[in-house]
Amino acid sequence: MEVHxxxxxxxxxxxxxxxxxxxxxxxxxxxxxxxxxSMERLESAGVELxxxxxxxxxHGEIQILFTPFGHTVKIARELLDDVxxxxxxxxxxxxxxxxxxxxxxxxxxxxREDVGVSSFHPAGIPGAETQDLILVxxxxxxxxxxxxxxxxxxxxxxxxxEDMGYDVYVLDPELISSIGDMSVVLTVRIVQAICxxxxxxxxxxxxxxxxEEQVEEVLSTMAYLVGRYGLDAFDRMDGKLLLRSLRxxxxxxxVERVVDFFERCYVDLLSGDRESMRELSSMMVPPxxxxxxxxxxxxxxxxxxxxxxxxxxxxxxx
Amino acid sequence: MEVHxxxxxxxxxxxxxxxxxxxxxxxxxxxxxxxxxSMERLESAGVELxxxxxxxxxHGEIQILFTPFGHTVKIARELLDDVxxxxxxxxxxxxxxxxxxxxxxxxxxxxREDVGVSSFHPAGIPGAETQDLILVxxxxxxxxxxxxxxxxxxxxxxxxxEDMGYDVYVLDPELISSIGDMSVVLTVRIVQAICxxxxxxxxxxxxxxxxEEQVEEVLSTMAYLVGRYGLDAFDRMDGKLLLRSLRxxxxxxxVERVVDFFERCYVDLLSGDRESMRELSSMMVPPxxxxxxxxxxxxxxxxxxxxxxxxxxxxxxx
Lengths: 318, 318
Hints:
2 copies of one chain form a homodimer.
Chain A: H1 11-20, E1 26-28, H2 36-44, E2 48-50, H3 53-59, E3 62-65, H4 72-79, E4 88-91, H5 97-108, E5 116-119, E6 133-137, E7 140-141, E8 146-147, H6 151-163, E9 167-171, H7 176-180, H8 184-203, H9 208-229, H10 232-236, H11 239-247, H12 253-265, H13 274-279, H14 287-298, H15 300-313
Parallel strand pairs in A: 1-2, 3-4, 4-5, 6-9
Antiparallel strand pairs in A: 7-8
Domain 5,10-methenyltetrahydromethanopterin hydrogenase N-terminal (chains A, B): 43-142
Pfam family, one (chains A, B): HMD
Organism (chains A, B): Methanopyrus kandleri
């Protein structure tokens, strides 16, 4: 992958591109760990460089947070009082917009109802050759019914990105990370695994509804296992057991190759045994079904609480 | 895969093997759609053949339900009054044991507390050459705290399977399906995708906790999408968007191959566009976290209700 080195990557690149597109840009960085030359190029494009975050948050109608991992929520909370009236705060690859929303929820629902939350996610490193799109979080999270921003605030982000020459996708606030973050590598492989399983199961004559249910249950089970045990779940799994079950499904050449590949490359990684397998607790109930049913009988509040606590406790910090 | 054709596969094979091992076996089948020769071989091994299910359920200390898809719960409920005192009902590949438990829960917690539920899952077709193990569901589902059977009932199933020459694994009742059913093909591929992502993310310097969280979130997101939209989720996804994001992660040769493979074989399958992507609602909160938090504030009852309703509504029937 080639990279244009004439400018620093990341936030500085976005600032440069926005200024080149005629926008009035303030770039805040407490340290400015970039070359003299880069700073000159930024300033000649019209970017104002400041080391004081407050100067930035008082200025921007759109505030793009190219903040370090695990610090976004804390930084935004400290600066929120000074944020310009009606501004929209946009997370990038270091924090999902819904996590920032929940982190600031108390203030956003009371004294700062004017402020919106969205994303300006570059789905890559701004300035890298192949980075050519921006993911903007939609105004509303359909599942939770939460309004993170106004339609106008989202439109504002879309317009800025388009002015900067980007192709823009507006996505559900909770879909941004799986599509835009590094973990898209996993998303894509899971999509492939599901498409492939679907064709295998169809060959075996399974009805579509059954396949859908199986896919959902396997995904929920795996999400549960990783949630409970972290990656240690895989040290507890017994690769030989999986292989023996898998072999019995080798009804097509395609699956025979899956068996062969698993046996050669993965069986030994799953170093658990009969005992460690027995100790794995599990749950096959999927998240959407849990939420729907809990809502049905005790209402929205416990679901919102569960969501909020989840986002507070994650790596995005609080 | 070669198969021993001298006996019918499936339930009849299990009956034959149990009888050969010296157990007293009744094989119930309302139709007996098998050859004269097979019936003779079963009878000469000591299997009693009956067409009346009631005769079977009155007899067995272990009752293995090789029942058709979608009918297990209904059949078991109709016969439950006649089930032998202290028997354990075992599902196979057509129903997860926890689904049968929830389907009979009212009776099992009142007038039939003596009856247990487990599994005798062959993880393949009994009688097929490579089929050499039995998965027995553990007495207790750790996550839900539900006791499906007594320790003695589980031990009874383990002993029978061992008598029959099988290798036995005892697993959490909710793990049986992902390991034993046809969907193990998907389980294995997801395990591979996660192991692979882990090494990619480590090369990029991501801390382990962050990788674990990302994995869990992607799995939850995908479980949610498949739960909400079924396999139609993939028709709504825009393969070109995924590809463009993925390309920006091609920092190793390994990922370059993932990009290449996805581009050649899968991009066109994901035929959605900007609009259909925008309409996908999503949720990244994982099932275990939802359950933990809901329990924390409104107690166990709504969680149990949600679980029960989920199992009632699935393909296993009610």
